[in-house]
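S.,

Sequence below, as promised.
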Amino acid sequence: MHAGKPIVLPGQNTATAKMPIICTPLVGRTRDAIVAEVQRVVPKKPDLLEWRVDFFEGIGNSAEVIAMAVDIRKVAGGIPVLFTRRSIREGGEKIALDEPGVLEMYAAVIESGTIELIDYEMVNDPAHVAQVRAQSKASGIQLILSFHNFQATPTHAELCAKFATAKSLGADIAKVAVMPQRLEDVLTVLSATLESSQKLDIPLVSMSMGAYGSLTRLFGWTCGSAMSFAIGDAASAPGQVPIEDLHMVLEILNRSLAPEK
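The prediction came back faster than expected:
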């Protein structure tokens, strides 16, 4: 029992898609570190791997980025890959690329056919968003348009507006991640996700971060969040829980919420 639309990964349809899917981040800085990270994560059975390329020391060279993406694919055992450059303003690492350079890298990675999903922040220049949208759509890659606030939780109305903005910009999936200052902020995220999931026809991903926010990572899917990020080897954001714990909680909740026969 859940609200919202599931994320349909390759080889699935709406009827077989999981809700939520579990995504584990890859945050290694070197090729060897990333390969070892994937090798440790794959046996834990995530549904999706997110490669946070802003951690990668070779990010300034698109050929090196693509070679790394190929290596991830070889070791991933068929698990789809989400490609993400998180900007400094939204909690990412400092990188040796300006935004035109990021766009060139995105275009090259999209064309390489080594990923299934790509994340781009919705606050970027609308022309840049449109460019990534057109390129990803042409290659059959799902686009996540995301918004992050590591300082606070916007109001219910503001969060709903972020989801709606992502949809209006052409997102396949809309993502919002914010920082709670009190427990009530967690309820704000959940209620905004529930309301937006009932109004929009695309999958939504939402989470509070930090200690309070771990609650949304465990049961936010019941309010319409189609993905939960969990630690496979190392965290990429505060409040992520180990994938083993998330698997256990999802099993318990799915059993408890199953319709009575």
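The chain has a mean pLDDT of 93.

Coffee later?
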